[in-house]
Queue: 2 jobs
Job 1
Amino acid sequence: MSEGRPIQIIKSAGDDFELNEDVLEKILSNDDISDHSIVVISVAGAFRKGKSFLLGFFIRFLEAMYVKKDASNWIGNRNDEAPLEGFSWTNGQERETTGIWMWSEIFQGEIKGEKIAIVLLDTQGVFDNKTSTKNCSLIFGLSTLLSSVQIYNLSGHIQEDDIQHLELFTSYGKLALDDTGNKPFQQLLFLIRDWSYPYNHEYGLVGGNRMITKYLQTSEHQNEELKSIREHLQECFTKIDCFLMPHPGLKVLNNKNFDGQLKDISDDFLNNLDSLARMILSPDRLIIKEVNGEKVSVKELFQFMRIYLETLKGDEFPEPKSIFEATAEVNLMNIFTSNLFGKTEKLSAKEFSLRHGALKNEILKQFDDRRKIGDPQNSLKYREQLISYLDKLCQIHSRINNNKNEMALVQLECTRWSLIAE
Ligand code: GDP
Ligand code: MG
């Protein structure tokens, strides 16, 4: 049995965040492993959705595979009466706090002769009001930045809200990284628990991937916002997968004293759990953490944690809400830019200013149409911002129109970038 325990490594304290540096340093600077390449598997999502339960099984698999070196019967016998060990996951015992936990035992393995270390993270929080949305986005963004596989644990099915939250926390990630052209994140795995439509899409990866591909498809007729969120996700992650998990059976839910005994869990659940664990944790399937295309070692991960936390937590850092709004504004700007400057012919000054005026009105109209709901005070602020940006863009465009000056194009990019960062 694993000798590890869950340690809260990042705590949300009111509006702020704390990194449990002492404990982390002790674990991650252990000489035996500090130079190993690291694999970081995170399970993220709301409370009470079976994350810890799942992680308990992941620990059992890792024990069998990397400590006992035999995972042939890792789940155990179905009539086994041993309780499941691992993250404290039993009913009512876990406090509903936002934060990131790490399993203190780091598993060691080898991929093609290269020594690796495997770390498990449990990331939790809910997006139920303004403060918690900001906190959660930060925490989820942070764990997405730190992990090579982010498992987004959802109950029942994917809703548009879940995708929007993902968009919020990936925005943080994008900002925290240099713009080197590498995708900021590695694998995202939607894990849908209690999937109840196996006749539409079968349990497991095949059904899941068919479902998610359909869900994330963009089309010309789609609403701009839905479309841009989907495009953004595809830009952010190297790989997006989905796994459909069956219900574990009523005994898991109804029995207060349930402690993870296998005889109480449905066969369907256990079979899919076996595939899932092998798919993510088998030696030939592990994904090493990379930042900007470079493999990360255990001790470097610790450094990254510190840097990311510093970058993300400062007061000046924008609320995800405003990043989200700004991103939406950037979409409008892109329409503006492509319409005004999509043409290759040079326009006369008069034509240019006519076209600019018409477009500006069109964009503001779109903005006003979208702003009917929401805080009017904020709307006004964003409207003024938008006007000033449109005017700034127009000046740059006008310069580009006069001579196709590359500097102006660069400047245009910077303006867009500063808009996102503002
Ligand atoms: P966490 O808060 O997300 O870590 O959730 P837990 O792992 O602590 O599980 C919360 C409750 O959900 C426990 O009573 C588990 O027995 C139960 N549970 C675990 N896995 C599943 C699942 O796949 N489906 C359902 N419906 N319940 C589950
Ligand atoms: Mg938990």
Job 2
Amino acid sequence: MIREVLRMGDPRLWRVSAPVERFGTRELDGLLQDMRDTMAAQNGAGLAAPQIGVGLRVVIFGVEANPRYPDAEPVPYTELVNPVLTPLSAETEEGWEGCLSVPGLRGVVPRHTAMRYEGFDPRGRPIRREVTGFHARVVQHECDHLDGILYPMRMTDMRRFGYTEILFPDSAGEEEGAVPAAGGGGAARPAARRRPRRPRPPPLRELPPRGRALGRPCWARGPVGATGASARVASEGPGGAPYTRSCS
Ligand code: NI
């Protein structure tokens, strides 16, 4: 069932979510079904349970590959419960993000470049991956929701926060309401059936403020060295630009 996505200002988005204590339950399956439906309906790249008003440590994310955006990094569709994130270095990089809870806006957010994430799938089987680039960004964004953090709270320069249609006029039409979507971790999942249209990444020269060194936008990044179990799964979701779209 498609659920309403809470928007910034709703106090439920500031809460710290509780760990899931039992796996493989009907309740958890139902929650994940609703999250998949909601993310697909919003064409999102990710969604955290608190965004639909459920205070549990559950996130889903995924971005499919798209030949139109070869630089975009696909992210395998993943359902992650009780995640624990560990930065693999102190290195950070900036990239544009958006969020279904902050609709119509985009901002540049510094994130760790390489992360390990651990947790469980909905059946309680362990997940452990080391990822970089956009995959790492998506995970950090989604897991922040579990601690009551929205991406604007991570921003360091509010001049690089604004309305999508102003920041990226070329892609505004495609972009609004179009957050990256669930990828397809290979399996045919409901959320993966819907092939989100990826907004066209704006040329670098149009990134505001003009002429300023902004850091590379996430969709412009080169190949990610597949670290560890990382996640370059070929049939995965529309990558990169997501963050022009948004993530959750
Ligand atoms: Ni979000």
